[in-house]
Structures are given as C-alpha cells and as structure tokens.
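2024-03-11 09:14:02 INFO worker-7 job=invfold-0412 stage=load source=structure_tokens
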C-alpha cells in the first residue's frame, strides 16, 4: 500500500494531481500563445495589404517604362505619349497602409451594408416565388464532406464545387443556392486548408473561398454556411462563416459568440442540428456482431477532461470486443491517434456510405460527445445510429440526454458506461426500444427538413416533404410471394407514390425480407418499417405509422394477411386506383376519399358512407384520430362527419377504365376484378 501523505492523500494521488495541474496550466499557456499568434496574423494581414500596394505601384512604374520604351523605338508615338501616360495612372488610387483600427471600421461598415442587401434580396425572392417548389427540384451548389454530400444527393440535385471548376459550373447553369459546410476535407480533399483556420498558407487569407462566395453573390445566388462542427472548432471556422449571407450552427452559445463579430456578412443565424437520411439510416434485423463499435476519432489536442471521458468510454467497451472505426485514420497522425492499448481494436477508416451498415451490424454504437454542456450540439453519428435502430452510449452530453432520453446513455461515470454496454451486448431489450423509435426519430431529423429550412431562410419557398401520397400498411408476416405482389402493385402507382411506411409485429420473421422485397421493386421510393407490439388496435397502429410518414396525404391500404397478399391477382391495377383516388382528393379537397360502401351511390358525393380501405386521407386527420377497422367504420365515420371531417365517396374506377367496385365481403374488403383486396 502506498504511504498516505500528511493530508491523507497517497503519493500516487499527489503525483496524479500535480501532473493534472501542470497539464491544465500548460493548456492555459498554449491558449495564450494561440491568441498572440492570431494577433500577429492581423498584423501580417495589414502588412500584406501594404505590400500589395507597393506591388501595384511597381506595376504602374513598369507600365510607364514600357510605354516610354515603346515611344523611343517608334518616334511616331512621341506626340501621344503624355496622353498615354495619363491614361495609365488616371483614376488609379495609390494604396496606403491605414491603421488596423481604421481598416476594421471600414470592413464593419461594408459588412453592415451587405447584411442590409441580403435582407432586401430575401424579401424580393419571396415575392417573386408565390408557389412553393418541391425540394427535389432544387439545385444546390455544394462544398461539403462526403457524409453530407451523400445525404443531400438523395434529396435534391447537387452541384459539387471545387476551387478549380466552380466558375464553369456557375456559368453553365447557376444553382439555386450555394451551401458550404464547415468541412475539413470537402469534396475529397479539394478544399483542405481552404475553409478552416490552419497554420498553412492556403488558410491565411481564404482567397479561394472568398472568390467562390463573391462569384455566387455577383450572380445573384444566395449563400449559406452550415457549421456542423462542434463548439470546440467554432473559432477555426469563424473567419469562413463571416463571408456568407446566412449562417446555421449546431450550438446556440456559438451563435451568440459569432453574432458579436462586427465584420460578419450574414444577415440571419439559426440553430440547425445535423440530420439523417432515412433511405440509409433505418432499422433492420438483429445485430450480427454482439460487440460494441466506436465510430469517431481521437484528437491529441482534446482538453484533458474530455480526453479522460473518451478513454473511460473506450476502456468500458474493451472487455466486450470493441471494434474502432476511426473516421480520421491515416489523415494526420500528428493530430489524430488512439492510445496504444486500443491498437488491437482498430478496424480501419470506414467509408461514409457504409456507416449505416456498421451501426446496424453491432449491438451498440459508441460516439464521442462534441460538447458536454451544450443543450443542442449533438454528434451527427448519434442521430444516425439511433435512426438505424441501434442503441448508443456516449460521453456526458446535455443535448444527447434531452434529444434521446433513455434511447442513449450519456455519462462519464465508468460504472454506468460498463453497465450500459453490458446490457446492450447481452440482451436485445434496448435495441427493440430504439428500433421501435427509429423511424419517428428519422422523420423528425430528416436532412430534407434541414435543407428546407436553409433554402426557406434564403427566401426560396419550398414544400417540406415529398409530393404525392405515402402508402400505409400493416403487414404481419406475409411470405416472399405476397411481398412481391405488394411491391408490384405499389410500383404501378408511379409518381403519385412518395414513400411506403409499414407497421409490423413480426420484425424478426419478416422485417428484413419485407424491406428487401419492397426496396428491390421500388428503388426510388423510401421504405420505412415500424416495429409494433402485438395486440395493439389497428387504429393506434395506423396513427403510429402516420407519424413517421412525410406527406400531406396518406393512402390507407389496410392490414394485410398472408392470404390477402398471396391471392392471385389481388393487387392487379390498384396502382391506377391509387392515382384515381389522389386525383379525386385534389378535385374535392376532402379530408377522406374512398370507395363508396355497400348501398351508397357509386358517384362523387360528399357522404361518409365509404369503405375503410383502400382510402386516401389527410395525414393530420390520421395523426389525430387514427383509423377505424371495417367493423367500426360506419359509426366512426358518421361521428367524424358530425365533427366537421369532409368525406368524398369517389368512383375513380370509372375514370381509370377499371371495373366498378362490387359490394364488400363480410370482412369489409372490396372486390376488384373478382379478387379480394384489403
């Protein structure tokens, strides 16, 4: 046992405390040195301005000398020499070296004038676009790291921009907006050292980024900067952020700090957390690897407290077969490197497009917190992993606790970290809980919503969500043949179908198969699965899956059984029926449009005597009231009509050329071409 010191502290404890105090003092010294270097940079910038003036003066001297030599060689030019010399120097101001305070005052005045112009331009764009545009029609000039590039490519048309080719892209067809991310590499490294502050010549004046922003501004294209980096890197991206019309940050405190900059050109600033892309970030079956996966990097310059917390997280996972996916592997060993004891756990650098598979493959995902005390700054990978249906354990984070609740464990306590990792590796309760909430979380944090906010702030009205209708189904274990029939029918819906949301109580038995069949037949339509508890009433199940849809209207297709899905011809031509019902919605403006029930006239009448499915209804209505089954439809729909819900008994079959609907069976399913459809 080590001997206690006079104050009751062991020698080892005293040594550790002394080393910690030394390191903390060293951090303070380094921060002071950094501030001194930045002040020196201001002086160098002023000196560069002076030297540029000197170069300009020398250039004029050279031009005058060339004119004189030309006149000497050609005496006939001598009479016009005085006029030529006056033209060379007329109106060209001689640069001086103004005091730094005066130069900054001038820059602040120019920035204020730019902000006023941005506000005016936003109002002009809003007035010139009375009808919102769908997000899919937008062209976004993009400078971003690969992860955001992949997300936005699934939402709109992106125009990748590089320092050597953006002028050609702008001249060919100007994008609707320029969006630049606080990226370190950006477009496969083309923008390295050109966005963040680095002790590197390319980063000193941000010439290439300034030219890009000024070029788009001159073309009338709004510019936006999305600072997805954590609060610890805000200062390094602050010079770049001040160039743009609009700024978006992940941390409210960072927004307040940046707003104090008098030279900022942005007119608006909003908190905008990172998003997810539901086509890639979605739940699936049980994990293949029962061990934990860490996704992130280990920066050598981390503050001491955050470094200790990150090491505690990794140490807690080591006994369970930790696998580290180092997102900075091979980029800069002097800045990023894991401690030696984790070398055996390193699995290389993952491709951003494969991260979703990494999340789903493991029992639990570990991510570092970007800012423990921030109420809004969360790691993008925390959202992506949860949307993929995988539990998350992270270092202490107020934002993670507020956003995820019990879906994620956020702590610096080694005992709590070990307990959380053990629970996820040894059982599936946490995974079932996260998997059931994944689609809803993906809906709330869909990157499509993030982009909609960015372009709307710039004055471009957009439709927040895909056009068309979302198909809602309850599917509890149909076989492969039935799934192919469903997918084939949905594929005939064409452009009217924007997404498919399926609620299932048989996730383990049919979840992966269901997604695979639907995705194979509907490659351009997002498919979302929602795990539901057995015994839940259908009305509540429809309400739940409607919450994860993202369209104004939903197509209620009913609960499907094995018999329904596999019946020969059961789904023939119903895509055309869906298109006809949607046409009737647009024509009538009703809240519910469906086939007329037995005994009702098969005409376009505003009556509640309709079948429960197939039907098209307002998504807001289903969120509020759920959806009744066939046995309760008549009573329920009558009460809805009395409360002001608008119904339309449609007969789109006559419009589409299909056979008229026959009276329903005892189960409430209509007949089309002699085949039961529920």
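2024-03-11 09:14:09 INFO worker-7 stage=emit residues=678
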């Amino acid at each position: 046992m080590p001997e206690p010191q006079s104050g009751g502290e062991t020698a080892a404890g005293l040594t550790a405390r002394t080393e910690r105090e030394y390191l903390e003092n060293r951090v303070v010294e380094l921060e002071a040195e950094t501030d001194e270097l930045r002040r020196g940079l201001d002086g160098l910038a002023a000196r560069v301005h002076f030297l540029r003036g000197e170069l300009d003066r020398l250039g004029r001297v050279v031009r005058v000398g060339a004119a004189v030599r030309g006149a000497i060689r050609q005496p006939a030019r001598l009479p016009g020499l005085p006029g030529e010399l006056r033209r060379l120097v007329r109106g060209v101001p001689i640069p001086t070296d103004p005091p730094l305070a005066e130069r900054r005052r001038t820059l602040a005045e120019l920035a204020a004038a730019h902000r006023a112009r941005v506000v005016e331009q936003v109002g002009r764009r809003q007035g010139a676009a009375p009808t919102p545009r769908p997000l899919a029609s937008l062209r976004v000039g993009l400078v971003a790291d690969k992860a955001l590039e992949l997300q936005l490519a699934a939402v709109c048309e992106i125009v990748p921009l590089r320092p050597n080719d953006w002028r050609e892209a702008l001249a060919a067809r100007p994008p609707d907006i320029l969006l630049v991310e606080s990226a370190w590499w950006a477009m496969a490294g083309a923008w390295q050292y050109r966005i963040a502050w680095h002790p590197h010549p390319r980063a000193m004046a941000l010439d290439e980024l300034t030219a890009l922003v000024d070029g788009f501004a001159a073309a009338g294209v709004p510019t936006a900067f999305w600072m997805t980096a954590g609060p610890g890197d805000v200062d390094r991206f602050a010079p770049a952020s001040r160039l743009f019309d609009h700024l978006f940050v992940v941390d409210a405190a960072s927004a307040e700090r940046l707003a104090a900059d008098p030279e900022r050109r942005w007119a608006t600033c909003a908190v905008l957390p990172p998003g997810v892309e539901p086509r890639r970030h979605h739940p699936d079956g049980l994990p293949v690897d029962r061990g934990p996966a860490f996704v992130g990097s280990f920066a050598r310059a981390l503050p001491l407290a955050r470094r200790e917390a990150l090491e505690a997280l990794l140490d807690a996972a080591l006994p369970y077969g930790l696998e580290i996916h180092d997102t900075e592997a091979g980029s800069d060993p002097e800045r990023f490197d894991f401690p030696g004891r984790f070398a055996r756990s390193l699995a290389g650098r993952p491709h951003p497009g494969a991260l979703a598979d990494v999340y789903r493959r493991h029992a639990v995902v570990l991510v570092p917190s970007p800012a423990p005390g921030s109420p809004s700054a969360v790691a993008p990978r925390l959202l992506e992993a949860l949307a993929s249906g995988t539990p998350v354990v992270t270092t202490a984070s107020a934002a993670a606790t507020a956003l995820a609740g019990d879906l994620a464990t956020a702590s610096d306590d080694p005992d709590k970290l070990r307990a959380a990792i053990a629970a996820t590796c040894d059982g599936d309760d946490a995974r079932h809980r996260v998997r059931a909430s994944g689609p809803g979380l993906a809906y709330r944090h869909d990157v499509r919503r993030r982009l909609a906010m960015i372009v709307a702030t710039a004055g471009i009205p957009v439709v927040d969500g895909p056009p068309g209708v979302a198909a809602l189904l309850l599917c509890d274990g149909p076989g492969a043949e039935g799934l192919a029939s469903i997918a084939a029918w949905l594929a005939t819906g064409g452009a009217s179908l924007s997404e498919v949301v399926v609620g299932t109580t048989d996730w383990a038995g049919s979840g992966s198969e269901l997604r695979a069949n639907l995705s194979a037949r509907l490659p351009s339509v997002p498919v979302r699965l929602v795990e539901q508890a057995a015994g839940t009433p259908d009305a509540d199940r429809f309400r739940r899956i409607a919450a994860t849809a993202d369209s104004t209207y939903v197509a209620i297709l009913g609960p499907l059984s094995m018999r329904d899905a596999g019946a020969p011809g059961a789904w023939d031509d119903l895509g055309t029926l869906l298109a006809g019902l949607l046409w009737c919605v647009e024509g009538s403006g009703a809240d519910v449009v469906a086939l007329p029930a037995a005994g009702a006239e098969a005409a376009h009448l505003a009556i509640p005597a309709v079948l429960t499915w197939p039907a098209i209804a307002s998504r807001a209505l289903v969120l509020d009231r759920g959806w009744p089954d066939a046995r309760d439809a008549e009573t329920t729909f009558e009460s809805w009509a009395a409360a002001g819900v608008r119904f339309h008994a449609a007969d789109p079959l006559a419009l589409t050329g299909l056979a008229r609907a026959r009276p329903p069976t005892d189960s409430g399913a209509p007949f089309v071409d002699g085949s039961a459809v529920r």
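2024-03-11 09:14:09 INFO worker-7 stage=report msg="Residues 130-271 form a domain with the Rossmann fold fold (CATH 3.40.50)."
2024-03-11 09:14:10 INFO worker-7 job finished
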